[in-house]
Amino acid sequence: MKKSLVLAMALSLGIAGTAFAANPFSDVPANHWAYASVSKLAQAGIVDGYGDDTFRGGKSITRYEMAQMVAKAMAKTDKADASQKAMIEKLAAEFSAELDNLGVRVTKLEKNADNVTIGGEMRFRYMNYEHKTGANKERSHNAELRSRLFVNGEINDSFTATAMLENTQNLKTNGRGGDESNTEFARAYVTGDINGVEVKAGRFDYLPVNGIFFDDDMDGVAVSFGNKLKTTLTYGRMTSGEGYQNMDAAAVNTAGVEMAYDVTDKLGVKAAYFSIDAKKNEALGYNNGLAINDNKVAEFSASYAFDKNVSMWAEYINSKEDFANTGKDGWATSLSYKGVNAAQKGSWGAYVTYYDLPAGTMLATTFDYPNGNTMSGIKGFEIGTDYALAKNITMHLAYADGKTNIKDVNNTDSKMIYSNVQFFF
Fold it and tell me: By the 8 A CB rule, do 243 and 362 touch?
């Protein structure tokens, strides 16, 4: 079929505006008999030229190319009258097989494009510390850039796979080796639903209750079920590298249960219990181990939303063992106002938190504690605010003041100012 024959379709359809655009193709001058028809088709987006701005009306086209033009014409049927719609339907019937193939190809391309998604975040953090023990005072600071890249892939209708690459750069040294600048394959896990039971397995991020005891990576499996009373069972190894000193977390088995229940639309309660077991772990050199690697922790929390802007939570937490004479019982409470939405420029939130925590309750706590040593416990407060500088760019500014929690010693009083600027993509 000659391309020029397609112009009959343009004359029949009349799909375009009444005014013509400037000469669209160099080989179709204004005095050409087909100028009006070609202009209409080009203006309507039904036909395209070539890279050299030519139309090449004498060129033979394939049925597939014709089907592409028919498909574009079908998208314009809202501008056609009854006779023109009948013409489009006739053409659609004639090229139905090609249109079907075109649809299959488009669908496959869209599905493949959506099957794997990539996103990430970059966080610049600056911290300034002041530590005072008796008459001794020292200052320090830290600056780092952390980058995370997330890759998500669809396994089937029920399961997805996620992987995370993470790089942390120490901006104080500009170093490129070891902990000064390292990139690691930090997470890899699958999530899915099996008959209403949520399953997560691999190395994944895990934050039970309010994150006081743990907010880090978990090697293992977590299953969640229930609606109003949601229960999560976990088994594996808590992989904290920040918690108990001298603990090879990869060798410490963990079993836990967490339950959450919404009493009303404003009041919610949570409870959790974790058993950390490293007894008789000869690989770590422990024989009936140190208590630091063998503990049981229980958490009880309640949260209340006063209105859409103001909410608070309070938690009691207990450690079976008393590490470093910091006690067994701890508690924390937090009051927050509004909250930042990274997608909404100008949104903001503020909070104030008070905590009194023994060492045994802080395996990998979510708090940015000022003394920097969980083995000393912490007693103090933190106040902070978050603000969306632009869409997907947020700033966090906070001040924390606290003392180590060791009984009957001269505890260290620490203060910290820190800020984050975070970019999401």
Answer: yes
Q: What is the tens place of the pLDDT at every residue in 32-67?
A: 655 665 566 666 666 666 656 666 666 666 666 667
- List phi, psi (to 5°) of 423: -115, 130
Q: pLDDT value at position 212?
A: 93
- The predicted-structure confidence for 83-124, as pLDDT tens digits, reads as follows 667 777 776 776 677 667 666 455 555 555 568 889 999 999
3-state SS string for the chain: CEHHHHHHHHHHHCCCCCCCCCCCCCCCCCCCCCHHHHHHHHHCCCCCCCCCCCCCCCCECCHHHHHHHHHHHHCCHHHCCHHHHHHHHHHHHHCHHHHHHHHHHHHHHHHHHHHEEEEEEEEEEEEEEEEEECCEEEEEEEEEEEEEEEEEEECCCCEEEEEEEEEEEECCCCCCCHHHEEEEEEEEEEEEEECCEEEEEEEEEECCCCCCCECEEEEEEEEEECCCEEEEEEEEEECCCCCCCCCCHHHCEEEEEEEEEECCCCEEEEEEEEEEECCCCHHHCCCCCCHHHCEEEEEEEEEEECCCCEEEEEEEEEECCCCCCCCCEEEEEEEEEECCCCCCCCCEEEEEEEEEECHHHCCECCCCCCCCCHHHCEEEEEEEEEEEEECCEEEEEEEEEEECCCCCCCCCEEEEEEEEEEEEC
Residues of the chain with pLDDT under 50: 1-5, 11, 15-21, 104, 241-250, 280-290
Distance of CA 399 to the CA centre of its chain: 26
| pLDDT at site 83 | 67
Burial class (CB in 10 A: 0-12, 13-18, 19+), 70: buried
pTM of the model: 0.70
CA angle (219 as vertex; 213, 222 as ends), nearest 5: 75
How far is 409 from 389, CA to CA, in rounded Å?
Answer: 44
